[in-house]
Design a protein that fits this description.
Order of helices and strands: EEHH
Structural class: mainly alpha
CATH superfamily of the largest domain: Plasminogen Kringle 4
Strand content: under 5%
Distance between the termini: 15 Å
Low-confidence stretches: 103-147
Mean pLDDT: 73
CATH class of the largest domain: Mainly Beta
Number of domains: 2
Largest sheet: 2 strands, antiparallel
Strand order of the largest sheet: 1-2
Shape: globular
Number of strands: 2
Helix content: 10-25%
Radius of gyration: 20 Å
CATH topology of the largest domain: Plasminogen Kringle 4
Number of helices: 2
Length: 150
């Protein structure tokens, strides 16, 4: 399974391993291995967590329920609210600030020439070759980079 730290790959979000630990209304998430204030369903075994265990999932938003198609959630620390959904975007529908910053860093620091211009001012053929190499490498970086899940 492809794991993702910044966004969820689909609406269910079963692969999400990020560190968001508050619900859409701002409630703090309960630790998955805790029985206080809510007792988690027994079917949410360690094998259902992408982290490998309930303990490793700490109090982060997750979706350990294969029948729940709507996204990540958590039990809350509010005794009056058993569970609530979390605001984790679907990958590709919105780019998080962390991904945007990281991609800008890749472009700015690793791909720009010494002149600070993206492709310099050489002949169109040289420019085209560098542009193609840049695009291929950036695509590889983004697609292989599970922190952004692009």
């Amino acid at each position: 399974m492809f794991l993702c730290e910044v966004c969820r790959l689909n609406s269910a979000g079963r692969e999400y391993i990020g560190h968001i630990n508050t619900t859409v209304s701002g409630k703090q998430c309960q630790r998955w291995a805790s029985n206080t204030p809510h007792i988690p369903r027994s079917r949410y075994t360690d094998a259902r967590f992408p982290d490998g265990s309930r303990a490793a999932a700490e109090n982060y938003c997750r979706n350990p329920d294969p029948s729940w198609p709507v996204g990540v959630w958590c039990y809350t620390m509010d005794p009056d609210t058993r569970w609530e959904g979390c605001d984790v975007p679907v990958c590709g529908k919105s780019v998080s600030a962390a991904c945007a910053d990281l991609l800008i860093n890749v472009i700015t620091h690793q791909k720009l020439g010494q002149s600070g211009l993206l492709f310099g001012s050489n002949s169109p053929a040289e420019k085209s070759g560098r542009e193609s190499a840049f695009t291929s490498q950036l695509s590889f970086t983004a697609m292989g980079w599970d922190a952004c899940c692009l």
